[in-house]
Amino acid sequence: MIRTFILTLFLTVYILLVGPPLLVYTLLAGDSALLYRMALGGVLFGVRLAGARIRVEGLENIPPGPCLFAANHTSSADAPAVVGAIPRQVAILLKESLFRWPIIGQAFRLAKFVPVRRTDRESAMASIERGAQGLRSGTSFLIYPEGTRSPDGRLQAFKKGAVVLAIKAGVPIVPVACAGAHKVMAKRSMVIRPGEIVVRFCPPIETTGYTVDQRDELNAVLRAALAAGLPPEQRPLDAASAAESTENDSLT
Q1: DSSP secondary-structure letter at 235?
Q2: CB 3.0-4.6 Å disulfide test: which of 16, 107, 120, 229 passes with 202?
């Protein structure tokens, strides 16, 4: 718990001291690049301060143009690891409640992150369309196809939002396999343990040959590719369930 206390204290002080001036600067300059770099740098410093090491593999698999990064989600520790490993500024589709946090929520909006209300299908569709517009305008996005953190580190079933977003925007999907984050910080746990988080960028998946009606097929391809990049203990137990979804599922 000492590491958790140190990280919490550092991030709280950092946000309070650096956050407001950066928000003002971003509003005046109309450019979120400095805000993004400073926020990410502070979080990554805090993660390393807590004893986590980040190893990045497969950077050569990232295409030069806008793309959709699709990562597995096991822990609060994997988000900074994945975002920090991506060598460009990205926007993220995040659950709507995170945008209500003081300072942090305003920073998310200025960085053009997209809020998602996962329990409302119509609202989720609108968020997907906003994300597609951002991709078409040249901004890469990060999304978590599982829709929530895995309880045991293994890859869960995917929602359809990631592939629908990529198909609508006509951009490739880069599967991002994140391993070890659940050992650093388990779901619903405040305990931080020292350890290594590996972020592996897998070969991109072209989406231009798919239609929205083929979203389940593309979902299966994406999940299989992401699973292949994970260590055996994080791969799904039932590979056949990779593309399981129903028309009533939330999109994200």
Answers
A1: S
A2: 229
Residue 79 to residues 96, 149, 153, 181, 185: CA-CA distances in angstroms? 16, 11, 14, 9, 12
Distance CA 236, CA 226 (A): 10
Q: For residue 186, report the phi and psi dihedrals to the nearest 5 degrees.
A: -75, 160
Residue ranges of alpha helices (H) inside the chain are 2-29, 33-49, 78-85, 104-110, 121-136, 161-169, 181-184, 215-228
pLDDT tens digits for range 53-72: 999 999 999 999 999 999 99
The number of beta carbons lying within 10 Å of the beta carbon of residue 22 is 22
- Report how far residue 121's alpha carbon sits from residue 102's, in angstroms, rounded to the nearest whole number: 27
Confidence at residue 90, expressed as pLDDT on a 0 to 100 scale = 97
Structure tokens of 85? 């490993």
Q: Which two tokens stand for residue 133?
A: 């517009």
CB 150 within 8 A of CB 73: yes
Query: To 10 degrees, what angle do helices 78-85 and 33-49 make?
Result: 130
What predicted TM-score, i.e. pTM, was given to this entire model?
A: 0.90
* pLDDT at 244 > cutoff 70: no
Q: Is the pLDDT of residue 246 over 50?
A: no
Tokens describing residue 70 = 């699709």
pLDDT at residue 148, rounded to an integer: 87
CB atoms within 10 A of CB 171: 24
Average predicted confidence (pLDDT) for the chain: 90
All domains in the chain, ordered by first residue: 52-241 (3.40.1130.10)
